[in-house]
Amino acid sequence: MSHLSGLISSEHILLDLNISSKEQLFDEVGRLFARTDDLSDTLVSSNLLAREQLASTGLGHGVAVPHGRIVGLKAPVAAFIRLSRPLPFDSPDGNPITMMVILLIPDNVTQKHLEILSEVAELFSDSAMLDKLSTEKKAATVHKMLSSWLPTHSAGKPPSR
Predict the structure, then answer these.
(1) Cβ contact 39:14 at 8 Å
(2) Largest Cα–Cα distance of the chain, in whole Å?
(3) Model confidence over 67-103: pLDDT tens digits?
(4) How many angstroms separate the CA atoms of 104 and 106, rounded?
(5) Structural domains of the chain sorted by starting position, each given as residue range(s) with its CATH number in brackets
Protein backbone atom coordinates (compact mmCIF):
# COMPACT_ATOMS: atom_id res chain seq x y z
CA MET A 1 0.00 0.00 0.00
CA SER A 2 1.13 3.50 -0.78
CA HIS A 3 1.98 5.84 2.07
CA LEU A 4 0.40 8.69 0.12
CA SER A 5 -3.00 7.03 -0.31
CA GLY A 6 -3.65 7.06 3.43
CA LEU A 7 -2.66 10.69 3.92
CA ILE A 8 -5.06 12.57 1.63
CA SER A 9 -8.65 12.51 2.85
CA SER A 10 -11.51 13.60 0.61
CA GLU A 11 -11.63 16.85 2.63
CA HIS A 12 -8.05 17.55 1.53
CA ILE A 13 -8.82 17.90 -2.18
CA LEU A 14 -9.18 21.48 -3.46
CA LEU A 15 -9.82 21.91 -7.17
CA ASP A 16 -9.50 25.11 -9.18
CA LEU A 17 -8.43 27.24 -6.23
CA ASN A 18 -8.20 30.89 -7.25
CA ILE A 19 -5.08 32.40 -5.68
CA SER A 20 -2.41 34.83 -6.87
CA SER A 21 0.62 34.37 -4.56
CA LYS A 22 2.48 31.80 -2.49
CA GLU A 23 1.45 33.65 0.66
CA GLN A 24 -2.21 33.50 -0.29
CA LEU A 25 -1.83 29.81 -1.19
CA PHE A 26 -0.23 28.92 2.14
CA ASP A 27 -2.83 30.95 4.06
CA GLU A 28 -5.55 28.93 2.32
CA VAL A 29 -3.73 25.67 3.09
CA GLY A 30 -3.42 26.74 6.73
CA ARG A 31 -7.18 27.35 6.89
CA LEU A 32 -7.83 23.95 5.28
CA PHE A 33 -5.75 22.05 7.85
CA ALA A 34 -7.16 24.17 10.69
CA ARG A 35 -10.66 23.12 9.60
CA THR A 36 -9.93 19.44 8.96
CA ASP A 37 -7.12 18.54 11.36
CA ASP A 38 -7.42 21.08 14.18
CA LEU A 39 -4.00 22.59 13.41
CA SER A 40 -3.11 26.26 13.82
CA ASP A 41 -3.63 27.95 10.45
CA THR A 42 -0.81 30.41 11.12
CA LEU A 43 1.56 27.62 12.20
CA VAL A 44 0.88 25.70 8.99
CA SER A 45 1.10 28.70 6.65
CA SER A 46 4.22 30.19 8.28
CA ASN A 47 5.94 26.78 8.32
CA LEU A 48 5.25 26.16 4.62
CA LEU A 49 6.33 29.68 3.67
CA ALA A 50 9.54 29.40 5.72
CA ARG A 51 10.38 26.08 4.01
CA GLU A 52 9.66 27.58 0.60
CA GLN A 53 12.01 30.49 1.33
CA LEU A 54 14.87 28.00 1.88
CA ALA A 55 14.41 26.58 -1.64
CA SER A 56 11.49 26.16 -3.99
CA THR A 57 9.52 22.95 -3.67
CA GLY A 58 8.53 23.24 -7.34
CA LEU A 59 9.49 20.08 -9.21
CA GLY A 60 8.98 21.47 -12.70
CA HIS A 61 6.37 20.55 -15.31
CA GLY A 62 3.73 22.58 -13.44
CA VAL A 63 3.84 20.68 -10.14
CA ALA A 64 5.16 21.31 -6.62
CA VAL A 65 5.36 19.55 -3.27
CA PRO A 66 5.30 22.20 -0.53
CA HIS A 67 6.05 20.46 2.75
CA GLY A 68 6.84 21.23 6.33
CA ARG A 69 7.51 19.73 9.72
CA ILE A 70 4.88 20.55 12.32
CA VAL A 71 5.65 20.31 16.04
CA GLY A 72 2.95 18.31 17.83
CA LEU A 73 1.51 16.72 14.67
CA LYS A 74 0.77 13.05 15.45
CA ALA A 75 0.88 11.61 11.91
CA PRO A 76 1.65 12.89 8.40
CA VAL A 77 -1.21 14.51 6.48
CA ALA A 78 -1.41 15.72 2.90
CA ALA A 79 -3.65 17.67 0.56
CA PHE A 80 -3.99 17.82 -3.21
CA ILE A 81 -4.56 21.28 -4.69
CA ARG A 82 -5.15 22.27 -8.27
CA LEU A 83 -5.09 25.97 -9.08
CA SER A 84 -7.47 27.77 -11.42
CA ARG A 85 -4.51 29.54 -13.06
CA PRO A 86 -0.73 28.97 -13.08
CA LEU A 87 1.25 30.41 -10.18
CA PRO A 88 4.96 31.40 -10.46
CA PHE A 89 6.81 29.10 -8.06
CA ASP A 90 10.55 29.37 -8.80
CA SER A 91 10.53 25.82 -10.19
CA PRO A 92 13.77 24.48 -11.70
CA ASP A 93 12.34 24.67 -15.25
CA GLY A 94 11.00 28.20 -14.69
CA ASN A 95 7.41 27.12 -15.37
CA PRO A 96 4.57 28.15 -13.05
CA ILE A 97 2.67 25.45 -11.17
CA THR A 98 -0.97 24.39 -11.38
CA MET A 99 -0.96 21.28 -9.16
CA MET A 100 0.59 20.33 -5.86
CA VAL A 101 0.58 17.90 -3.01
CA ILE A 102 1.03 19.69 0.31
CA LEU A 103 2.67 17.46 2.90
CA LEU A 104 2.78 18.07 6.66
CA ILE A 105 5.04 15.78 8.69
CA PRO A 106 5.56 15.45 12.46
CA ASP A 107 8.78 17.22 13.40
CA ASN A 108 10.46 13.99 14.57
CA VAL A 109 9.84 11.89 11.41
CA THR A 110 12.65 11.60 8.85
CA GLN A 111 12.65 8.33 6.87
CA LYS A 112 8.88 8.25 6.28
CA HIS A 113 9.06 11.90 5.17
CA LEU A 114 11.60 10.98 2.49
CA GLU A 115 9.56 7.94 1.41
CA ILE A 116 6.40 10.03 1.01
CA LEU A 117 8.24 12.76 -0.92
CA SER A 118 9.63 10.05 -3.20
CA GLU A 119 6.11 8.71 -3.81
CA VAL A 120 4.77 12.17 -4.62
CA ALA A 121 7.62 12.75 -7.08
CA GLU A 122 6.80 9.40 -8.71
CA LEU A 123 3.09 10.27 -8.84
CA PHE A 124 3.89 13.55 -10.57
CA SER A 125 6.14 11.78 -13.07
CA ASP A 126 3.22 9.60 -14.21
CA SER A 127 2.07 11.57 -17.27
CA ALA A 128 -1.23 9.68 -17.64
CA MET A 129 -2.09 10.40 -14.00
CA LEU A 130 -1.08 14.06 -14.38
CA ASP A 131 -3.37 14.43 -17.39
CA LYS A 132 -6.29 12.98 -15.42
CA LEU A 133 -5.55 15.09 -12.32
CA SER A 134 -5.36 18.26 -14.41
CA THR A 135 -8.79 17.80 -15.99
CA GLU A 136 -11.01 15.91 -13.53
CA LYS A 137 -13.89 18.10 -12.32
CA LYS A 138 -14.99 16.12 -9.24
CA ALA A 139 -12.99 16.15 -6.00
CA ALA A 140 -14.38 12.71 -5.09
CA THR A 141 -12.98 11.25 -8.32
CA VAL A 142 -9.60 12.90 -7.74
CA HIS A 143 -9.58 11.43 -4.23
CA LYS A 144 -10.38 7.97 -5.60
CA MET A 145 -7.60 8.31 -8.21
CA LEU A 146 -5.04 9.34 -5.58
CA SER A 147 -6.19 6.67 -3.11
CA SER A 148 -5.91 3.87 -5.64
CA TRP A 149 -2.61 4.98 -7.22
CA LEU A 150 0.35 2.78 -6.35
CA PRO A 151 4.01 3.64 -6.82
CA THR A 152 5.81 1.11 -9.01
CA HIS A 153 7.97 -0.14 -6.14
CA SER A 154 4.79 -1.03 -4.20
CA ALA A 155 3.27 -2.83 -7.17
CA GLY A 156 6.11 -5.35 -7.28
CA LYS A 157 7.87 -3.67 -10.20
CA PRO A 158 11.16 -1.84 -10.12
CA PRO A 159 10.89 1.96 -10.24
CA SER A 160 10.89 3.33 -13.79
CA ARG A 161 13.68 5.68 -14.80
Answers:
(1) no
(2) 41
(3) 999 988 888 999 999 999 999 999 999 999 999 999 9
(4) 7
(5) 4-148 (3.40.930.10)
